[in-house]
Amino acid sequence: MAALCEAFTLCGLAPTGGVGLGSGLLALQPGAEPDHVLLTDRGRTATLFKVSDQKPLGCWSVKHGQIITCPVVCNFETHEYIAVHDNKVLRIWKDEDVNLDKVFKATLSAEVYRIHSLPHAEPLVLFKGGGVRTLDVLLEAPQQEIENVISDEVIKWSEAFLEGQQPVLVFVTEKDGDFFVYLQKPKMRSLHKYKLEQQEVSNPLSFTAYIRKQIITLLCLYSSDSVYKVMIPLQQNNEEEEQTLSKSLLLNLSISGSVLKGTSFVVLDKDHVAVLGSLAASGEESKECLTIWNTKFQTLQASKELPLGTSGQLWCYGEKFFFTHGKVLTVVIYKCETSSLAAAVGRLKDSQTSGVFSFANWNTLGDEELLVSCQSQQSAVLKSESKMTLRSKKNTVVNVQPDTSTVGQFLIVIKHASTAAVEDELGQLLSKAQTPDFQATIGCVITALINRCKTDPAFYPRNFLVQMIQKRDLSYSLCPDLMAVALEKKDVHLLQICLQRFPDIPEEITYTCLKVFLSISDDYLERTDVNLESVICYIDIEPTNKEVKTEVVENGFNTELEEDGCNVTGIKETYVTDSVQFCPVGPRKAALLNAVLHSAYSETFLLPHLKDLPAQQAVLFLRYLHYLYVKCSEKINTTLPGILSPTINQIMDWMCLLLDAHFTVMVMLPEAKGLLSSMHKFVRAQVRFYSELNKIEGSLQELQRIKCQKEPPAYSIEVLELI
């Protein structure tokens, strides 16, 4: 979640603003302290500001006729300031210095483009010809010759990083519409040149970058209203060959028909960028604004209109944005939290919003705090109910007033009472009239029960938990530790109900349930209570070998297909195992697997977990999915009978997901080759069958049309010719 908070003016930019920044702002750099920033104007002045106090701490100017040509930076090691005026004259001073004519001066042999200051390292000086020197090396011989790395190219942007203890400098140049990226490591005398992949209809306008795990990620803001990402590895073998860097689309700056014409941008974290530009909608006047975008979910998170206009420059330090707005330098504080889908789509509401309840995290509360939380939730619901029923306010309050003392007493009873006593108390609690706060009360009660289960292994009120899940609209987020305890107890019946009823189960928990169901023995399942409603209608138990036998109904094709190029050695020997006439698992395990198929999931988050599934379990699960797929294909409507039976789409999605996760393993395993071949033949036969149906589709439609045109008599014989 990202948001723009309060804004304030740091200083004026006009000559009457009091700080002499009338020529415009050249750059803004961080100072030695977290709350300090250095402002360099396009004339002669550099000013140090304390942001929280909104006042200048120091101001330094060069003589008339001289111009500061490089942004002033702070040497974080020595707390000195470094500036370059007239392209070649280097100045270094401290806070107590007033007159820059009397501070250290050095005239260099080449023109300076930019000075980059790094924490715990010497500043890097980048020359317009592409040469780089650390400041200490440069000061040893200011007139030393600086090599020209680039020829007829103009530097457009540069940035410095620290990789371990090694400084790294990256800069972008332009020549005749082509853009090049240079990567330099001054201490290692290493230089790499890359060519940026061209885009026919647009050019890059602004750049920013960050480093992570020895890879520099370069972000480019293009004139096509898009942000592209370029990956630059730090480890390279060939230093002479020029390579072309390919780019990938990171973000489209458009929303609801409006397009943001960005001028500059900065990276906030791995999922957010801030863009300054003009938001233009068709038929409307464009408006300059500051925006925050979520690159993970491609959404606009926050926006602030800037009616007085900007210079197109944007800086970001210490969770604060700096930009010119009209004739002042404005500071906007922002907050940027971990990215989530709820925040990205704007469904994560502020806890202070009227009418929205602030639910407590019951997992971190003790029993007394649980009671206080329940009471606060009940009070909030009562207030809401009383507002909705003003005419019968007194009666409503009397009828729904919760017995908080009963809830509190019960939470205390949970601490020490036996399982039977707790279940009796729960029955009495649930037998009372339900109140609007009942859901919050159930959340408190279940959390207290789970906390007791964690500390007391002998305590497990299974009957109550099953009853609550079956009869109440609960969710995983309301009692997140419930399924973890059920997994520890191997309570497959409770897990089955949770998978069928909870809409928000994390993919990791779904995978863990699948792994437990596949690994658990049939003998253990025979002693447990499992709901068989999803399987009992389409499978039969064969008493001799306890396998599940089904009647094969041919759906327009023969399952015993002719042998072809997909034959695998040993298929005939393993055909009985791969045959879809028998279910590869027992009915109880099949019912549990059906519950997994019924659970909602995201492929992106489930796939990494599925790759950890043991090979033998993956093959067994795939056999069962293949069996279900054949069973669905036997029906004209491709629907399995029963309650909460898996659909054909769920089966196919899981088959594809499992093959994506384990395809290489499946190909290498001898026992899986016959299964893959059988699946291939079955699918191919279906493709042929539906292809034949498509050929007569026109005739079938004509029959339907003729039937609708006339009403036949009660008894008639008609002869229809299919051409």
UniProtKB/TrEMBL annotation:
Major localisation: nucleus
Nucleolar protein 11 N-terminal domain ranges (all copies): 1-335
Keyword Transcription: yes
UniProt keyword annotations, A-Z: Activator, Nucleus, rRNA processing, Transcription, Transcription regulation
GO cellular component, one term: nucleolus
InterPro entries on file: NOL11, Nol11_C, NOL11_N
Nucleolar protein 11 C-terminal domain span: 413-722
Keyword Transcription regulation: yes
Pfam families: Nol11_C (PF20998), NOL11_N (PF08168)
MF (Gene Ontology): RNA binding
BP GO annotations: maturation of SSU-rRNA
Localisation per UniProt entry: Nucleus, Nucleolus
Domain of life the protein comes from: Eukaryota
Protein name: NOL11 protein
Species annotation: Odontophorus gujanensis (marbled wood quail)
